[in-house]
């Protein structure tokens, strides 16, 4: 069961989204919040944690960017999906930088909504290829390509990192590289340790900034 919290100051939108999510198999909206401060208090005073928190980017008191920063610091195990009425590369890139797991426009189709939620729940990250391409272009000119070997990555770890960025599941990576699931998980653990990334988003940022996946996404 994928457990979700919704945070949006627009009551009609949050009710509509809750209704749609209730139709998805194995997806449950545990709680909804119209005030970000209420969410923070809930997390501070209750042990229960959702798998995903869906956050509106434009809210009074605490906007979505600031709330995402707080959530990734206080509850790094919980995935954050940003929601916005206005598509903006600047906004999306900022979300990537602070550790959001996905972005969805509020007018996204129902299949896209479900695909994003399930991918985030299973793999911890989902940004569409076009977004990753744009982000890569924005950072490539500002940062020279590093020699990953000098950073201590093995060739197999690089292979796994590329496939993670291509959003393959652990099972798919194992099948593609002809290795066991345990071996894939070991490589993931090594990648987190060597790159300093705290989550899959961090691994993707590392790969993008080092131009490792330029051929995969361009």
UniProtKB/TrEMBL annotation:
GO molecular-function terms, A-Z: DNA binding
4-aspartylphosphate modified-residue sites: 56
Alphabetically ordered keywords of this record: DNA-binding, Phosphoprotein
Domain Response regulatory: 3-121
Top-level taxonomic group: Bacteria
Gene Ontology biological-process annotations: phosphorelay signal transduction system; regulation of DNA-templated transcription
Stretches assigned to the HTH luxR-type domain: 146-211
PANTHER family: TWO-COMPONENT RESPONSE REGULATOR (PTHR43214)
Name of the protein in question: Response regulator
Organism ancestry: Bacteria, Pseudomonadati, Bacteroidota, Flavobacteriia, Flavobacteriales
């Amino acid at each position: 069961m994928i457990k979700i919290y919704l945070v949006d100051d627009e009551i009609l939108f949050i009710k509509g989204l809750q209704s749609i999510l209730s139709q998805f198999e194995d997806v449950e909206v545990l709680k909804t919040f119209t005030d970000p401060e209420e969410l923070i208090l809930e997390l501070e005073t209750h042990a229960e944690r959702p798998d995903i928190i869906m956050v509106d980017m434009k809210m009074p008191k605490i906007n979505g960017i600031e709330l995402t920063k707080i959530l990734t610091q206080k509850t790094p195990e919980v995935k954050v999906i940003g929601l916005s009425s206005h598509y903006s590369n600047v906004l999306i890139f900022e979300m990537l930088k602070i550790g959001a797991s996905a972005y969805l426009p509020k007018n996204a189709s129902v299949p896209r909504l479900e695909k994003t939620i399930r991918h985030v729940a299973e793999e911890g990250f989902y940004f569409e290829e076009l977004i990753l391409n744009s982000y890569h272009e924005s950072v490539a000119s500002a940062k020279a390509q590093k020699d990953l070997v000098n950073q201590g990555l093995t060739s197999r770890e690089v292979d796994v990192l590329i496939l993670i960025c291509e959003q393959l599941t652990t099972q798919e990576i194992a099948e593609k590289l002809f290795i066991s699931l345990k071996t894939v998980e070991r490589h993931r653990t090594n990648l987190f340790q060597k790159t300093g990334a705290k989550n899959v988003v961090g691994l993707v940022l590392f790969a993008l900034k080092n131009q490792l996946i330029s051929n995969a996404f361009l």
